[in-house]
Design goal:
single chain; 120 residues; alpha+beta; Arc Repressor Mutant; 2 domains; two-stranded antiparallel ribbon; two-stranded antiparallel sheet; 3 helices
């Protein structure tokens, strides 16, 4: 499955009983249920079924994109990497806003700079 979303574990503690030389001892194992995401949005059973139906129907090889290595390009040429320093409060606002929009901080920064430059 492709996507930039990371799996998010939900701890589900389950009691487990083990026998030791000293008698019966109760302890918990932390079982986790993983939810797969794509771009921060949960993957549903309906999405998986739609992908399976599409795959079973077959693909036209000529229309498939050739796999590429590395980061996706930003336009016709490689992007220029810039480094900026933000005060902690601004960095927190950036992270919160990007999470609410289900986009990366880099995308949010590019959009903000583009909007600022076109508005002036």
């Amino acid at each position: 499955m492709t996507g930039s979303g990371a799996a998010r574990p939900e701890p589900l503690p389950r009691p487990v009983f083990g026998v030791t030389n000293n008698g019966v001892e109760a302890y918990y194992l932390c079982m986790t249920k993983i939810r797969e995401t794509i771009d921060g949005l949960p993957v549903t059973e309906e999405m998986i079924q739609a992908w399976a139906n599409e795959a079973e129907a077959g693909y036209e090889v000529e229309k498939l994109h050739a796999p590429r290595r590395g980061r996706p390009s930003l336009g016709q040429s490689p992007g220029v990497q810039l480094s900026v320093r933000l005060e902690p409060e601004l960095a927190d606002l950036l992270s919160q806003s990007a999470a609410e929009r289900h986009i990366s901080k880099s995308v949010l920064i590019r959009d903000a700079v583009r909007h600022y430059l076109h508005a002036s």
